[in-house]
Fold this protein.
Amino acid sequence: MNKRLYALVPVLLMAGCATFEPEPVSLPLTPPDQWAHKDTSGATVDADWWQAFDDGHLNQLINRAIAANPGLAATAESVIQADLQLRNAGTALLPSVSASASSGRQASKAPGQGTVTGGSTSAGVAVDYELDLWGRLSAVEGAALANFQATRFDYDTARITLVAAVATSWFEWLELRQRVEVANRNLELGERTLSLVEVRYRNGVASRAELARQQTAVLGLRNAVPPLEYQARQRLAALRVLTGEVPFAGTPPVADIAAVSIPKINPETPSDLVTRRPDLAATEARLTAASADIMQARAALLPAVSLSAAARLSADGFLSLTDPVRSVNGLVGLSQALFDGGQRRNNVAISQSRQIALLESYRGSLLAAFQEVGDALDREALFQEQEERLQDILARAEESLRLTEVRYREGADELLTLLDSQRSVFDVRQQLSQARLSRLLAAVDLYKALGGGWEREESRLVTAQAQE
């Protein structure tokens, strides 16, 4: 009997005749040959791209966000769940082994007879295995593997998005702080002019209307400061939430947006972009999972073949297998649905439709990716030129204001001329601050659009380790 059981083991452990082999995902469109901006003098994007801004505060914030952001931690748990689902899918390709044992004792007594006692004990092992003749089970595992890869890529995308959000919020806070400083400087300038007008008014040179006009201007400048301070506090609170900290707690850091370096970035070629963005890789993985789903649906149209074997020992006696009776049996099962109202064929059509929808979504994602890079490159060039022009304009406006103050003090110019000069300086200072922020945000968006230095090989290594 044992020899028969051993002879069945290789049969039960034989591999299925069909396996799922994913086909490479072809690009649904042809990438352009080059970007509209052909300047490639900058540095290529690496995984720690935020360090190119040379801002120690930003580096600390991003490190805290990666370690403590709740949303990123939840996404990491999704990767763990997908890994466990992959492991569950792989177990369907292996035999299932179960064991059972029982022992009992009974007593019976017939009328006029003595009590008769007895017992029985049995133990057995059963092995069940479904032959994967049509590749259905391997397709299930292939879909689970592709979904795990997509979830891993989703985590990489979430990580890049989080880092970009932290950098954006930090730069916006720096710009708001600078706008507060600019507003305070404008207020100081307005108050200095008000002092000058008051002196002229007391000496009978300036009219009451001029004094009231300047007093109104100072009140307006003073009223502009609190809203900017409020916006800065709100932005800092949002930044603390991104880093997993309690909002509206702690003291604001001391930093200056002018001290932040603006890196020069090399976008490389559009064809490289396809392999450098994890969101595109996630869509490719889901396309692979969709092809596995189609294979599953098609295999469900064919008969299922299963093998089972069992070995059993039984003996009379309670908790005893002395001189047991041995039995071994094997069974080949074949099942085929004859009529299901077209449900399984509809499942094939549904899987094919989902694959087409994913392919169109992939094409849309590629178009959006090319647009994001091109737009970021455009904005980077635009605001660099704008900031350079505004610096020159500010220097001229401040010189004009200085000369106008002198002429007003000497009575050669009216107050309205001085106010116009002040307003020009105020406006240019605000525009220069916003242009600086726009350049920083364009750089962040470009880093993000280029994939944030993401490497597909790193995710492949993680996937291979999980598969093992």
Observations:
- The two ends are 37 Å apart (CA to CA).
- The chain has eleven helices and four strands.
